[in-house]
Amino acid sequence: MIQGISQDSILRLPRVKEITGLSRSSIYMAIKQGRFPKHIALDGRSVGWLESEVRQWLTDRINASRTA
């Protein structure tokens, strides 16, 4: 393990869309508004998201909908 880096999977956009049910434009709009985890630059134009952050975001949305 690299120091400071957890053993976390990197998700590409199609998988993030599948997990969240959001469209590409909705994901990027939510990032811009600070309501979704920021992506990680991988190489050139390639980006990914930490699976743990995406799943935590989803858990937070579920919890918020249950307490509203």
Features:
68 residues, alpha+beta, 3 strands, globular
Topology:
Blueprint: E1 10-11, H1 13-20, H2 24-32, E2 40-43, E3 46-50, H3 51-67
Antiparallel strand pairs: 1-3, 2-3
Describe this structure in words.
50% of the residues lie in helices and 16% in strands. By secondary structure, the chain is an alpha+beta fold. The protein has one domain. The protein has a 3-stranded antiparallel beta sheet with strand order 1-3-2. The chain starts with 9 loop residues before the first strand and ends with a helix. The mean pLDDT is 92.
User: What number is the mean pLDDT?
Assistant: 92
Helical content (DSSP H or I, runs of 4+) = 40-55%
Largest sheet: 3 strands, antiparallel
- What is the radius of gyration computed over CA atoms, rounded to a whole number of angstroms? 13 Å
Give helix and strand order, one letter per element, not per position.
EHHEEH
Alpha-beta classification? alpha+beta
Shape: globular
User: How do the strands of the widest beta sheet line up side by side?
Assistant: 1-3-2
| pLDDT < 50 runs, ≥5 residues | none
Number of domains: 1
Taking the alpha carbons of the first and last residues, their distance comes to 40 Å
Summed up, the helix count is 3
Report the sheet-strand fraction: 15-25%
Number of strands: 3
